[in-house]
Write a structure and sequence with these properties.
Layout: H1 6-22, E1 29-32, H2 33-39, E2 49-53, H3 56-65, E3 71-78, E4 83-90, E5 93-98, H4 115-118, E6 120-125, E7 128-133, H5 135-145, H6 148-160, H7 165-174, H8 179-189
Parallel strand pairs: 2-5
Antiparallel strand pairs: 1-2, 3-4, 4-5, 6-7
């Protein structure tokens, strides 16, 4: 599947948010995954738009608002991943909305616990401003998954810009990343200005 461009992600999000606005809905969500990184200026492969919802009711609210668009996966509980999940096609882009219902005391995970709700930035997305999970949390996820085609561009971006070193450390701790991945991060980001 071809990688999405920022314009594709923006178009899909704008259409989804316009549908929500027309329905008078305001669910609590965060943009996560690779689309969150793309919206923050990182050039990396993006296959879909991932929205993390605070509650199952928020997933249902999105589903109701997106009902004019093709539903690819009806809202359902996925016990193997502890998610309440749905998928729509919006302007040719797969938009996935889900909860992730695992507990953690850490604030360093991208989709679990308080991390995505505390550590995000607001990004312009067409006529809207959207809450997007911080790159430090995304990087730790990609390092855990060992996807260099994703974590290398994230490292390059963080090396070129400021970042929160303490948040990144907590994120790596939360995923219990192996020493060689931590060494890679430290080698690439040592001497880079911190936020």
């Amino acid at each position: 599947m071809a990688s999405l461009r920022r314009a594709n992600v923006t178009s899909a999000l704008e259409a989804a948010l316009t549908a929500l606005s027309a329905a008078g809905a305001d669910p609590t969500y965060r943009v996560g995954g690779t689309s969150a990184a793309l919206l923050q200026g990182v050039r990396l492969p993006v296959g879909d738009v991932d929205l993390l919802a605070a509650r199952r009711e928020d997933v249902d609210t999105f589903a109701a608002a997106l009902s004019p668009f093709p539903c690819l996966y009806a809202p359902s509980w996925l016990p193997e991943s502890l998610q309440y999940f749905t998928r729509y096609e919006v302007n040719g882009v797969h938009v996935e909305i889900s909860t992730v219902e695992r507990e953690t005391d850490s604030d360093g995970m991208e989709c679990v616990g308080r991390g995505p709700w505390q550590h995000y930035v607001m990004i312009a997305c067409g006529a809207y401003r959207v809450p997007v999970v911080r790159l430090e949390l995304r990087l730790a996820t990609e390092l855990l998954r060992d996807r260099p085609d994703r974590y290398e561009p994230l490292l390059d971006h963080l090396a070129a810009h400021s970042f929160d070193a303490e948040l990144l450390r907590r994120a790596m701790d939360a995923h219990d990343l192996p020493p060689e991945r931590r060494h890679l991060v430290n080698a690439r980001l040592t001497g880079v200005p911190r936020a």
